[in-house]
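Model it.
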Amino acid sequence: MPQPCYSPLQLGMANLPGIPPDEAIAALRRYRETLIARRDHAQARWDAQKPLPYFVDAMFDHGVTMAEAEAKWIEAFISRLEANDGKD
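Modeled.
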């Protein structure tokens, strides 16, 4: 059964009201760049090792897919903060 966990991103977002919007946006951009670098690294390792057993392939696929999804979500959230200047 999945266990609840709170990522550093969620903890940071809980503290957004105490951070100036420009600092929050800069931190989110850095986080997004880290996610993209992690995704690219995982994708390169995955590609270099193919073919893989189905379960290992699924592990790489999950990691790459989750990093991509989170990066897209972060980008949309940054756009929202920029449009609203953090006053949503």
